Amino acid sequence: MKRFEKHIFVCENKRPEGHPKGCCADKNGVEVRAKFKKRLKELGLSPSMRSNAAGCLDACEHGVTVVIYPEQIWYGNVTVDDVEEIIQDHLIKNSPVERLKIQDEKFNKDKK
Amino acid sequence: MKRFEKHIFVCENKRPEGHPKGCCADKNGVEVRAKFKKRLKELGLSPSMRSNAAGCLDACEHGVTVVIYPEQIWYGNVTVDDVEEIIQDHLIKNSPVERLKIQDEKFNKDKK
């Protein structure tokens, strides 16, 4: 059995003020991760599920960016208010939240 | 197809000086990640493989700690000199480096 059933990485990367890409830290990445951590604990889902800080996930324009492993589902523009839905639907029911997903073609399109 | 074929998270967590747990930053976590990044680029493995900074992976006593997804293989006490072996054996040949693996039971034993 693997150590974590679900491992949630939340970008908390901080760029200098005024950087054109923006950054997840300025869009409440830290608060999003804190909410995951608090709720996973309250719901008894930790330690088999862990919310983890991540450096830049190279999806700044979609921030706050979250990626959940092992399934590698990407979420964009995640707010503190979205966390409960991701926990209830994706983590508990294994039904990813479609409205927040970053589609694979979006990543490909963004690549130069 | 998933965005990343391999996603390598390297703990770069920094604890205050003298903290009993120690921390990956003091054991060259930043340098380990930089080496992964440099070599993945040189070998043409990025962007389908990405080395990413991570906050505390809750395995401080095994630091520098590295976890590779989607397979969730954990490595401990990783040095800059170990990076090439992980890339060649695990990332390229899909043959994890046994001598560096943190065994699952080690995690369980450490839990209070």
The biggest sheet of chain A, with number of strands, parallel, antiparallel or mixed sense and barrel status, is:
4 strands, mixed
| Estimated share of beta-strand residues of chain A | 15-25%
The helix tally of chain A amounts to 3
Distance between the termini of chain A: 39 Å
Uncertain runs of chain A with pLDDT below 50, 5 residues or more? none
Radius of gyration of chain A: 14 Å
Please give the oligomerization state of what you see: homodimer
| Mean pLDDT score of chain A | 92
Please report the two chains with the greatest interface, counting residues with C-beta closer than 8 angstroms to the partner's C-beta: A-B, 25 and 25 residues
Written account of the structure:
2 copies of one chain form a homodimer. Chain A has 112 residues and is of the alpha+beta class. Helices cover 28% and strands 17% of the residues of chain A. Chain A is built from 3 helices and 4 strands, in the order βαβββαα. Chain A has helices at residues 29-42, 83-92, 104-110, and strands at 6-11, 49-54, 66-69, 73-75. In chain A, strands 2-1-3-4 form a 4-stranded mixed sheet, covered by helices on one side. In chain A, strand 1 (6-11), helix 1 (29-42) and strand 2 form a beta-alpha-beta unit. The longest helix of chain A has 14 residues, at 29-42. Chain A binds chain B through residues 1-4, 7, 9, 12, 47, 50, 52-58, 67, 69-72, 74, 104, 107, 111, and chain B through 1-4, 7, 9, 12, 47, 50, 52-58, 67, 69-72, 74, 104, 107, 111.
In short:
The structure is a homodimer of 112-residue chains. The first copy, chain A, contains three helices and four strands, in the order βαβββαα.
